[in-house]
Amino acid sequence: MKAVYIEKNGGPEVLIYKEDYAEPKQRKRGHLLIEIAYTSVNPVDFKTRKGMLPRIAYSLPKVLGGDLAGVVLEADETSAFKKGERVVSHVSVTSKYGTYQERIVLPEKLVAKAPSNLSLKEAAGFPLVGLTAYQGLVEKAKMAAGQRVLIHAGSGGVGSFAVQLAKAFGCYVYATCGPSNVEMVKGLGADEVINYREKQFDEVIEPDSLDIVLDMLGGDIEVRSRRLVKPRGHLISILNDNVKIARIFGNYIKSGFGGKKFAIVMVHPDRAQLEHICRLYEEGKLKPVIDREFELKDIKEAHTYIEQGHAKGKIIVKVAGEEDQNK
After folding, report:
1. What pTM was computed for the model?
2. Exposed, middle or buried: residue 53 (CB in 10 Å: 0-12, 13-18, 19+)?
3. What is the pLDDT of residues 283-307, one digit of tens each?
């Protein structure tokens, strides 16, 4: 089967594309054999490839990838999933699984039925970013209707999903982005879009006025964002290279003394949350945002593109593809 894996850390050149990669091990009870139609590329993929994550988190060689949309090939007779059913899943980078391959065996508890109104190509883009936004806004910040929420980097993978999720929950949403993405982010439902080339977000938003800030940028943005959060409000940070350990501890200490609450999202698979996200798609409250598509054999180009940091929404990778399935 086709797969992409790494044997060592480095640049895109260490990505190995192979068409006769070993098939997954025999399926156990409680597991599904899935043919992957599409996967996607996320920042954690190139960070793993480059060796930016602690080596204790994963072992080499490793098949990369954390998102999948595909079709069930085998399941238990008593399974909630049937052969031929369309499914989605997110697998953690710390797990032994990877989705840059044609077939995979996964525990049922990691899998949800794909939204009926999305193609598998569209569905492949949301598991990781959807769970990241959901776990930050809903699980940690307890987002509720009527709240005022700021989403930084509103045109990126997590940001474009988070804007829609906050609107689906009935919030008033501010979002930041560059000038070329303003109309796109408005189209996602943001109430106020702040073009950071023209104005700074803390010139537009009053101090102590926000219920939630979702920050994917860190550094100075995180410091300035905290000033905008109400007492007992939430600053949610997506772990990235600009998040400083000392500041993390300082924010947690301040939170413990009744100040503005702080939390970091380290995304984890959650079937119930994934199912809720799928229902929101089916209800028309969310829509997929895809930047471009690559073939699996062109994964090096996909990694090069995402590292440039200009993607609008998600980068999708065709693995088996819907037309290639069930031959």
Report:
1. 0.93
2. middle
3. 999 999 999 999 999 999 999 999 9
